Design the sequence.
């Protein structure tokens, strides 16, 4: 077999891609809030609660209103949780202010592709609705990343995303609004489509009008066809938000509407008061639920625990060995819930020198997101030079080898074995225009001692001949950007059913064909 040298990729290009990807993720999060009223929560000096004094001027905010949303992505119903909350009204310095909070966090499998954990607190002027103080926190790293914008001294004429939601609601879902995000000024145009829809969800049944949203901010983030369904009553609640991306469709459905009455201050004056916090009452510590080995995997995953796939490896039409992939067991690994994936050489031809019997790759992954926790290569013969063990910390974006080397990697980077399973959950719809492949999927993969960014290009359904049977499959071409690898034309064919099983893989003259699929329950 020709040896392949994994040349050093330009690390700056890799992290430039990753930063772009993360900005898109945050954008998706922000616009799930944008139209569904989502996000953020963090501890900050809160506006002091005010008594209900009839002489207080009207405000565009509904104090105490709390909206929560369930966000779905393609077939994943529980992709994210989001909320928006008008907490209280009081004084911020000398200004009459309203405290707003929002939060969004992606869940389970979707976190592997869109990792979002964002909170925001905005203090807005109770008359104009414009922000006075904005504090945003991203919790995806090992330590929270905080961004603060203070307009208490020099006022701003622009909304942030959170206050713009309320401005659009008060305008009946129509109008042009300026806002500032990431130190750049944008405008958003809301237009009513003239179409009314009756929406029924967990929060109830609503008569709604549909508004389309256009903004340069939206276009920059790759978001199209953004629509918001506002209730037709006086509250103008965002009941449903929908938008499209190159990777798939997002939908945020209103899950609940609460009105939480703020507590009145002791003195009926609009001046700050000092709050004395009582010591918390001691409570008994709950007994933790014991961990149970080999719990079934999430229904959203296209494979089950114990799935065993056997492949025949050949080159030039000559069989050289057999490799078995298995979702072997679900147990704790380093104190974490973990799924063990294995790839094992289970048979060899005596004249070949590539595979040795019982050579194995073992990977521990998160059972929900399939994000790698660890990978270990135990190889002999010609492949022994690739032996290593790598530990992944997705919070800090680092990979640490058993040799003590610590390498920076993009958050969400896969190992070669975790990718083999995660690719089955990717949205791999081919582009309608083959000259404009907008549906290419890019994913970071750790190989050797670096993270490479692979481009997966899906094609339309095709028919392949597998073990004498004609089977419908989808071809996915893989490009690494490294000519020494790409010259071999790495391709994989996935079944067109819900399981998305890899049926065939080709790399140069080498070919792996699925010959057996069975379920072996873990012991």
Sequence:
């Amino acid at each position: 077999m020709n040896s392949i040298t994994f040349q050093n990729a330009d690390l700056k290009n890799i992290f430039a891609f990753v930063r772009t990807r993360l900005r898109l993720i945050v954008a998706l999060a922000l616009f799930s809030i944008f139209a569904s009223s989502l996000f953020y929560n963090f501890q900050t000096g809160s506006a002091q609660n005010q008594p209900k004094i009839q002489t207080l001027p009207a405000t565009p905010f509904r104090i105490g209103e709390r909206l929560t949303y369930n966000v779905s992505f393609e077939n994943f119903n529980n992709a994210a949780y989001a909320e928006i909350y008008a907490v209280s009204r009081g004084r911020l310095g000398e200004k009459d202010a309203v405290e707003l909070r929002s939060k969004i966090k992606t869940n389970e499998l979707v976190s592997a592709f869109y990792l979002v954990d964002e909170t925001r607190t905005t203090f807005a002027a109770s008359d104009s609705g414009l922000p006075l103080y904005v504090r945003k926190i991203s919790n995806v790293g090992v330590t929270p990343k905080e961004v603060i914008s203070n307009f208490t001294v020099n006022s701003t004429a622009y909304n942030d995303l959170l206050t713009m939601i309320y401005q659009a609601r008060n305008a009946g879902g129509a109008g042009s609004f300026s806002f500032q995000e990431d130190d750049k000024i944008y405008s958003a145009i809301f237009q009513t489509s003239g179409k009314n829809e009756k929406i029924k969800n967990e929060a109830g049944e609503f008569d709604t009008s549909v508004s389309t949203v256009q903004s340069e901010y939206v276009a920059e983030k790759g978001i199209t066809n953004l629509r918001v369904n506002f209730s037709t009553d006086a509250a103008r609640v965002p009941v449903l938000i929908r938008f499209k991306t190159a990777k798939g469709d997002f939908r945020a459905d209103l899950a609940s509407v609460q009105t939480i009455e703020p507590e009145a201050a002791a003195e009926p004056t609009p001046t700050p008061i000092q709050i004395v916090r009582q010591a918390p009452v001691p409570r008994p510590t709950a007994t933790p639920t014991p961990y149970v080995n080999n719990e079934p995997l999430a229904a959203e995953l296209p494979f089950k625990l114990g799935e065993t796939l056997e492949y025949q490896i050949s080159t030039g039409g000559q069989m050289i060995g057999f490799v078995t992939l298995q979702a072997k067991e679900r147990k704790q690994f380093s104190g974490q819930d973990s799924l063990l994936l294995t790839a094992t050489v289970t048979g060899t031809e005596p004249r070949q020198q590539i595979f040795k019997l019982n050579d194995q790759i073992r990977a521990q992954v998160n059972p929900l997101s399939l994000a790698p926790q660890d990978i270990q290569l135990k190889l002999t013969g010609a492949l022994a030079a690739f032996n290593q063990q790598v530990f992944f910390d997705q919070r800090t974006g680092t990979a640490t080898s058993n040799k003590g080397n610590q390498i920076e990697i993009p958050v969400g980077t896969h190992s070669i074995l975790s990718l083999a399973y995660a690719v089955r959950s990717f949205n791999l719809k081919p582009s309608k225009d083959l000259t404009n492949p907008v549906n290419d999927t890019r994913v970071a993969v750790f190989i050797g001692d670096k993270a490479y960014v692979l481009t997966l290009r899906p094609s339309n359904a095709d028919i392949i001949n597998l073990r004498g049977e004609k089977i419908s499959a989808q071809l996915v071409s893989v490009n690494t950007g490294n000519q020494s690898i790409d010259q071999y034309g790495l391709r994989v064919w996935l079944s067109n059913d819900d399981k998305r099983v890899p049926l065939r893989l080709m790399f140069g003259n080498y070919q792996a064909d699925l010959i057996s699929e069975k379920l072996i329950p873990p012991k």
DSSP finds five helices and 26 strands in the chain. Residues 11-36 form the longest helix (26 residues). The chain has two domains: 14-259, 293-519.
